[in-house]
Amino acid sequence: MQVSVETTSGLERRVTIQVPAARVDEAVEARLKQTAKSARINGFRRGKVPMNFVRRQFGDEVRAEVVSEVIRTQYVEAITQEKLNPAGYPDIEAKVNEAGKDLEFVATLEVYPEVAVAPLSDVTIEKPVASVTDADLDKMIDVLRDQQAKYEVVERAATEADRVNIDFEGFIDGEAFEGGKAEGHDLGLSSGTFIPGFEAQLVGTSAGEEKDVNVTFPEDYQAEQLKGKDAVFKVKINSVSEKKQPELNEDFFKLYGVEEGGVEAFRADVKKNMTRELAQTVKNKVKEQVVNALIAGNEFDVPKALIDNEVNALRQQAVQQFGGGQQFDASMLPAELFSEQAIKRVKLGLLMASVVEAKEIKVDDAEIRAYVETLAESYQDPQQVVEYYMSNQQMRQQLESAVLEEKVVEALLAEAAVAETEMSYDDAIKPATAE
């Protein structure tokens, strides 16, 4: 076998492979003899068909099979011999494929780039520093009470904090328009879910009252025919309801998994969850900065095959996220919607793999278990969650990748300068920018 490798552009390689004619022809002849033992041709008994008949009947088919097998095996041998690391499948084209002549084919492929990660010694990472104060805890408990709140009908004028039940119909230039009518609709007067100005005009109204509400549809309103139009809604107030938060009692505590210990145990449990969420958010913010610095500080070509694979994965994620399921063909989504994110993901994967290799980072069972135990803390039965993840091979692999990624970030963070910034819980808990 003769092999020559040509760099055509960037990561693309053109590998020309020649295989001696004798090797292919001998393999074809051996396959034909094997075929002759079981061939069925009219006028001849099985196993007694003359070879010239076998060649005429099966020669082309057998040669195609043999050549395909030879190309596959010789391609693998060639890239191994030339120490090529292919990214994706090659495009193979036979140049010479005739009996009695050396078989020659060309494999065009992309190879993985050589990635040497630049240290983050010139990078400063901002790390938020915050704690959960009593005021933060009180605010969170108020949010939890709001989540369990019920509305009760009251006989008074509505305030911004109330909810009204209304019938309404909208008109533009005296004409009712499609989609502008409803009956028995519940509307919170500070929800911001209706057209700007609508809710505010119902503050002070009472049950049984009728009111004309004048509004202007926003210029960016989703319905084209309503953009920027002045409208009048004729509204009837059916009822006014005020929000009633539940008392801080045993029944309320049980809703959040606190069976005993009263208000002190409940506050301690909520604070524990807030502290865990704060730590995770800070970790994510730091990680995002490290990842961005890693990508920005290392420029290299990315194999198109890997980008295409990632684009397809992102397409599938998008379909699942928006409920398309099997009824929607993910390939219909334009690749350019995902290309930038795909390139970033592929680069990050290659960079992290390079760091893992260079720093010889490994993950052991104890680290995986510790990671999943942290994840399981927010569940009602943490031990059951831990055992499920640890016994599921696919889940375990995902956990191992997550722990490995964390260790890579820690190793890179050790190279960078870290500036701690004091801030409030609310500012610190704001999530890192979504990808």
TrEMBL record:
Source species, domain of life: Bacteria
GO molecular function: peptidyl-prolyl cis-trans isomerase activity; protein folding chaperone; ribosome binding
Gene name of this polypeptide: tig
E.C. designation(s): 5.2.1.8
Broad class of enzyme this protein falls into: isomerase
Job of this protein: Involved in protein export. Acts as a chaperone by maintaining the newly synthesized protein in an open conformation. Functions as a peptidyl-prolyl cis-trans isomerase.
Catalytic reactions of this protein: [protein]-peptidylproline (omega=180) = [protein]-peptidylproline (omega=0)
Domain notes: Consists of 3 domains; the N-terminus binds the ribosome, the middle domain has PPIase activity, while the C-terminus has intrinsic chaperone activity on its own.
Similarity annotation: Belongs to the FKBP-type PPIase family. Tig subfamily.
Subcellular location: Cytoplasm
Taxonomic source organism: Oceanospirillum multiglobuliferum
Keyword Glycoprotein: no
Keyword tags: Cell cycle, Cell division, Chaperone, Cytoplasm, Isomerase, Rotamase
Stretches assigned to the PPIase FKBP-type domain: 161-243
Cellular component aspect of the GO annotation: cytoplasm
Signal peptide range: none
Annotated protein name in UniProt: Trigger factor
GO biological process: 'de novo' cotranslational protein folding; cell division; protein transport; protein unfolding
Pfam family, one: Trigger_N
